[in-house]
Amino acid sequence: MSELPHYLFVTGKLAESALRETLVPLGEKRGFRWQVEVLPITVAALMTVEWIAKRLVVPQGVQKVFLPGYVLGDEKLLELQFGLPVVKGPKDLRQLPAWFGAPVVKPDFGQHAIEIVAEINYAPRKSLEQILREAELYRQTGADVIDVGCEPGPVWTGVGDVIRALRDAGHRVSVDSLQIEEIELAAKAGAELVLSVNSWNREAAPDWGIEVVVIPDKPGEDERFDSTIEFLASRDVKMRLDPILEPIGFGFGESLARYRECRLRYPDAEILMGIGNLTELSDVDSAGINFLLLALCEEWRIGSVLTTQVVNWCRTSVRECDVARRLVHYAIRNRVPPKRLSEDLLLLRDAALAPVGSEGLDDLAASIRDANYRLFAEEGLIHLINRDVHLTGDDPFEVFEALQATAPKNLDPSHAFYLGYELAKAATALTLGKQYRQDEALDWGMLTQPETSHRARKSPLPEAFEKDVGKDGGAGTGG
């Protein structure tokens, strides 16, 4: 029987006990031997790779070294020094079991079956520079085709110039118009798709030589819809069918059912769903709506969607659709629920919370020996802790006022600004039910913006850091 792998886990004084309690069952379950090396510092998150390199001694027989996830610096420095693999683990040691149990190969969300047509609304009102800028944004966030949205009224004679400019920039382009002359200009300039054709402009469609989207004259009028389809099919016009999605309050349920009926009546047809009628006309964040509509499209073999980004709550719809089409394709292809596969569309609330708990926070407060502030947000309360105080409250202003009342000596303007920023994040996390971790960005799914921590902004470490560590092992930036 082969010998179990031997791992070394590096930590600070505060986390030693909790780390050992975690490793006892984990090592047995995952099949490895372990040791814990406690370095002379109170909080492991304050370590850097350079600082560790001066103090860590790796026992003989260790095959891999694990560092806390918060450690700053490139772990390859330690790999060169010790000749062993060095890995940064999760930022919270309570995540170690899941971290070790995670599959080596992540689900492949690269494949998808749905094409995204992203519309530039009110294109005649915009400059060419604005249109090109918007088109590039759409392409970068997942759009396959850029739709140039025209407007009712006089023919837009500049549509051809816009189509050509978009084509020259490498975009695939469609035109959104019912006016025959406007569509002719766009087709000659290189548009590959027309939105839309119905009974009154279908006579001209065979002359354009490009694919068209067929719509009913009025939603629900199947007779004219079918006659337009038959007319175009008899003339070998390539087409997609769009029964028209109606907004809530105007027959949404019935219109949704018509897509299913369309698939049953035309089993081999290409179908497009214009989803903007629902996302843009509903006062609700668009991500969930887009996900559900893309799931229906995947199940019903609706091969393309038309989306827009006009109102503020739909400002990332193209990207949402790109994430959703990959996720639903994976779920349906592999016959698994789209749960715990990806957190990209969990924008407001986190998938799970990992509270320290009141007892753990009390133990932490009792063990801290330095003046640096630790912030936590859980169970409706903000906790501000250092060696002198353990303040709690649900109002960040009141927590800060309580801190000021203690006449702290380390609350200069820079530090006060830092605490104010972190307290605001903590309050936001409590409001939305998100995990707050000090010096780390809140998780907004695919919209998360990486955040440089207060401590990292002060790297390389000042001389005072080394001196403080030498005194009591509890150095930090005051954050």
Structural write-up:
- The structure is a single chain.
- The protein is α/β, with parallel strands linked by helices.
- It has 18 helices and 15 strands.
- It has helices at residues 16-30, 49-53, 76-82, 96-101, 128-140, 159-168, 180-189, 205-208, 222-234, 252-265, 276-279, 286-299, 317-334, 358-367, 396-405, 413-432, 454-457, 463-472; strands spanning 6-11, 33-38, 64-67, 86-88, 115-120, 145-149, 173-176, 193-197, 211-214, 239-241, 270-274, 304-307, 374-378, 381-385, 390-393.
- The chain has an 8-stranded parallel beta barrel, surrounded by 6 helices. A 4-stranded parallel beta sheet has the order 2-1-3-4.
- Helix 6 (159-168) links the parallel strand 6 and strand 7 (173-176).
- The longest helix has 20 residues, at 413-432.
- The radius of gyration is 29 Å and the shape is elongated.
- The two termini are 49 Å apart.
- The model is unreliable at 460-479 (pLDDT under 50).
Q: What's the topology here?
A:
Elements (H helix, E strand, L loop, with lengths): L5 E6 L4 H15 L2 E6 L10 H5 L10 E4 L8 H7 L3 E3 L7 H6 L13 E6 L7 H13 L4 E5 L9 H10 L4 E4 L3 H10 L3 E5 L7 H4 L2 E4 L7 H13 L4 E3 L10 H14 L4 E5 L1 H4 L6 H14 L4 E4 L9 H18 L23 H10 L6 E5 L2 E5 L4 E4 L2 H10 L7 H20 L21 H4 L5 H10 L7
Parallel strand pairs: 1-2, 1-3, 3-4, 5-6, 5-12, 6-7, 7-8, 8-9, 9-10, 10-11, 11-12
Antiparallel strand pairs: 13-14, 14-15
Helix pairs in contact: 6-7, 12-13
